[in-house]
Amino acid sequence: MEPISVALLAALAAGAGGEAGRQAWVSLSSLVRRPFRRSAETNDPTAAAGSGEAELALLEESPADPARAQALSAILAARASVDADFETDLRRWRELAVSVRTDQSQGHNQISGGHFSGPVIQGRDFTGLSFTTPPPHASGPETDGTTTHRS
User: Fold this and answer.
1) What is the DSSP string of 30-74?
2) Over the stretch 130-144, which tens digit does the pLDDT of each residue have?
């Protein structure tokens, strides 16, 4: 299994990604604290390295320390190599975690060219928005701008 990105681990430990990042970190913590199951057929010397709980706690204490993030990444890879269930769950966790926006960059918005009508919202990471606009003006005898009198 490919190691978990040191940058991703450090960013999540530091609280990047908002609520989604926090949930990803809690999920990883839960996964690491799960009982360790070594494969019976594996005589890998890295199996004695441990579960990763100590490395997880150290990174949580000092998320800006790249050596701590590297240590956690290495122990996760070692554990995954000897625990098939852990490897499967760690792969699943990584697929979800990489979708968490851990960078703190600003969004870039641009509208150009053409003719646009309707609302425009610019920003980054919108959720829970709703708005309505009036229907476009219909063209026809009753809505062409002339006044019709009925008796």
Assistant:
1) HHHHSPP---TT---GGGGG--SHHHHHHHHH-TT-HHHHHHHHH
2) 767 666 666 655 555
Domain ranges of the chain: 6-97
The pLDDT tens digits for 32-76 are: 999 877 655 555 544 445 889 999 999 999 999 999 999 999 999
DSSP 63-102: TT-HHHHHHHHHHHHHHHHH-HHHHHHHHHHHHHHTTS--
Instruction: Indicate the angle between helix axes 18-33 and 53-61, nearest 10 degrees.
Output: 150
Is 59:9 a contact under the CB 8 Å cutoff? yes
Bin 120: left if φ > 0, else alpha if -120 < ψ < 50, else beta: beta
Nearest to 72 by CA among 127, 124, 6, 122: 6
What Cα–Cα distance (Å) separates residue 144 from each residue in 115, 117, 138, 149, 151?
Answer: 22, 19, 8, 14, 20
